[in-house]
Amino acid sequence: MVASEAHPFAKTGGLAEVLGALPDALARLGHRVTVVLPKYRGVECDAAGDAVTFSLGGRSQSVTFRAQWLPSGVTAVLIDAPELYDRDGLYGADGVDYPDNAWRFAVLSRAALEYARRAGERPSVIHAHDWQAGLVPVYQKLQFSTDPVVGGVPVICGIHNLAFQGVFPASTLSSIGVGWEAFDLQAMEYWGQISYLKGGINFSERITTVSPTYAREMLTPELGFGFDGVLSRRAGSLTGILNGIDFERWNPAADPMIPAPFSANALSGKRRAKEALLASLGLPAGGRARPLVGLISRLTSQKGMDLMEAAVDELMALDLTWAMLGSGDARYEDLWRRLAAAHPDRVAVTIGFDERLAHLIEAGADIFLMPSRFEPCGLNQMYSLRYGTVPVVRATGGLDDTVTDADENRGPATGFKFREYTAAALVSAVRRAAEAFGKPREWKKMQQAGMREDHSWNASAREYVKVYEGAVEAAAAK
């Protein structure tokens, strides 16, 4: 597996969670997994290095492979190139991408193949994740097609968020060692530029994404982000597999970051978590009887913050307490700060990220709100289900796949959904949840139904194995 981030080494979002959990789940199924990623600033690794130099686009690039074996049995290989990766951020600083990202992640893709070649053991499959690893199959097909180690190995392109496409000027091709034959609609050309993600899609044998609904949505003009045609052409090779969550890190029965354990059969610890959350945020203890709505989010329009902004007066008119943890666009950070100042007894805002507070919000909130414009999979709604915190979500991507509304006839209700991306639909769903909270017996059934669902990585990993085996069988049949 090749990716730009993976827990516990480096994380900006859900990609790191997947690359932390999926390899471990595959290892538990008996598979040998190697994850290759950059060694960023602050990543500790005492492993002895294997220094190599290779030529790429007429330039000489030196890297050091630092391999370490994780307790799960997974091998993590960190690509050590300080001039490329020893920086303040993974992809940019102060909201601006690094100008040499095209080179930084070309090196990642090329180095990952070089590591495999030097290790000398032919992999069964190579799984390249998101645009940052999009050149892996491009280099494999154009430069190493006859290589005895990596040549002919099926490559799977994993798409975690289609909105990020790795688009660069066409002139980048020569500088990254890719011939102009790749400047083609069926290869990497994208509106006069090139896209690393498009290269990953077109040069891979299979494509995966992070939920069945998102796999369908990305074939539409509305959510295809200009790639709906590219993906529709490869629709027969596209599989949507719902992400799992780490059931050990997110387990209310054994979570060291919450005040008391609880389970579907013994929910008293959840009440203690609510009390602790209110206290930690400086909110009145008297608000215990009022529904507490939690949000943990990037503050962007993709996450539905524009809807929140449009609906804010109606939402604040409801008898609810709010706990928000997140950061993002200054416009939405300012919105939440204003709400906290206007409603100090009902709105608590923490700008940034705090792992302990995230666990406490998941455990202590009654309702968890995710009003996303689009959401390839989403993890927080599954954490919420695990912790008996009832999700209110927009019915898109993985949110639609994981939350069952009472209005649906597909099993016990676990939350509330709205489909139209409008302020009125959002307010209606939140109001429905608040009203349901006032019916303790029905509410408890909903909590327990969500807590008993299995969103662990075990089932998801088996689905990935099916994709890998299908790719291997197809390659053998050629």
Number of strands: 19
At the first level of CATH, the class of the largest domain is: Alpha Beta
The CATH topology of the largest domain is given as: Rossmann fold
Mean model confidence by pLDDT:
96
Give the CA-CA distance, first to last residue: 24 Å
Q: Please tell me the CATH architecture of the largest domain by its name.
A: 3-Layer(aba) Sandwich
Can you give a write-up of this model?
The protein is an alpha/beta fold and 478 residues long. It has 2 domains: 251 residues, Rossmann fold (3-Layer(aba) Sandwich), CATH 3.40.50; 187 residues, Glycogen Phosphorylase B (Rossmann fold, 3-Layer(aba) Sandwich), CATH 3.40.50. The chain is 38% helix and 19% strand. Helix 4 packs across helix 6 and helix 10 packs across helix 15. It starts with 13 loop residues before the first helix and ends with a helix. The mean pLDDT is 96.
Essential attributes:
478 residues; alpha/beta; Rossmann fold; 2 domains; 19 strands
Give the helices and strands, then pairings.
Blueprint: H1 14-28, E1 34-38, E2 49-56, E3 59-69, E4 75-80, H2 82-85, E5 92-93, E6 96-97, H3 101-119, E7 126-129, H4 135-143, E8 155-159, E9 167-169, H5 172-175, E10 189-190, E11 193-195, H6 196-203, E12 206-209, H7 212-217, H8 228-233, E13 238-240, H9 268-280, E14 292-299, H10 305-317, E15 321-328, H11 330-342, E16 347-351, H12 355-364, E17 367-370, H13 380-386, E18 390-394, H14 397-402, E19 416-418, H15 423-437, H16 440-451, H17 457-477
